[in-house]
Amino acid sequence: MPSWALFYLLAGAILQVPSASALPPPHTVPNARDVNENAVVVGLNVAARAADKLYFGTATDNSELNDTQYFALLDDIRLFGQLTPRKGMKWLETEPERGVFTFAQGDQIAELARRSGKVLRGHNCVWYNSLPTWVTNTTWTAPELTEVVQEHCFNIVKHWQGQIWDVINEPFNDDGTWRETLWYNTLNTTYIPLALHAARQADPHAKLYINEYNITGTGAKATSMKKLVRDLKRAGVPLDGVGVQAHEIVGEVPSDIQRNLEEFVALGVEVAITELDVRFFTLPPTEAGLEQQRKDYETIVGACAAVEKCVGVTVWDFTDKYSWIPGTFPGSGDACPWDENLKEKPAYYGIVDGFERRQ
């Protein structure tokens, strides 16, 4: 058993991670490439567990839970062993007024995870977006904002104890410079250790992460993240992992993902692929494009599978029906492993094959 798995097993009373024996046998079915592409032959979470990963998971949102066909897939432990609320745990939803905490949306998804034996990822404590007006429209002094950050992080991590947490979300620009946010402009870089210490005080057993996009491969942004991790670890700041979001474009996936993940791990943290999708820049996709997307998913998942302390992979929702991509990148889309009709795409089998690299 990998050493990183001990935390999750010790915390099992809260996380309720199923044992490998509770899942269907991973080696009693043929390789996905050898069967009809429309037949689900290996559950993605089954494949992840067979590769000694903790989970394969997905983001979801409260409004989607009313879709019965979608929910049936989401609830299947063979497919998904982890859930991330896309919105329900963000600041706007959890503390709409100062000191007034509303946990209902997050609780709904947390209960779904608990009931079906899935790992829950808290997302997120401190981000520059999804903030209530009482935060954004106030001119704060550094001591005042310090208190705000500490109170918020402490209360939401305390409420959802025993979980993995994206404590800090997206602190850098793509060129590796610090993103000039309310937090940075008022507190400089100190908001990061402030939030991490508050989260650790709230829950000594939580796994605390910094989460960022465009750090899938090496480059300026990944270099800045590694420096931050190194500095925090040297200073004794509680930090357990780095979330590599992996929002990618078909045909443009970095070639050095495994090396990059290994460089993070060498700093004394675990890593996870936290928000995976691979979008087409233009639509509709061709058959060749769908095959390239399959290869891209296999490359990313295979890199995680090859790194012992890459603990799992999460897609940023599993179906094009609920993907965030079209609303953010007009004209782009079809980024998920299931299409908008909830049918598996070739990308599904790319994920299976990526995990099978480890077996």
TrEMBL record:
Residue ranges of domain GH10 in the record: 48-354
GO MF entries: endo-1,4-beta-xylanase activity
Keywords on record: Carbohydrate metabolism, Glycosidase, Hydrolase, Polysaccharide degradation, Secreted, Signal, Xylan degradation
Signal sequence segment: 1-22
Transmembrane segments: none
Catalytic machinery residues: E275 (nucleophile)
Enzyme class per UniProt: hydrolase
CC terms in the record's Gene Ontology section: extracellular region
Coiled-coil regions listed: none
The EC number(s) this enzyme carries: 3.2.1.8
Pathway named in the protein's UniProt entry: Glycan degradation; xylan degradation
Family note: Belongs to the glycosyl hydrolase 10 (cellulase F) family.
The protein's name in its UniProt record: Beta-xylanase
Organism from which the protein derives: Pycnoporus cinnabarinus (Cinnabar-red polypore)
Lineage: Eukaryota, Fungi, Dikarya, Basidiomycota, Agaricomycotina
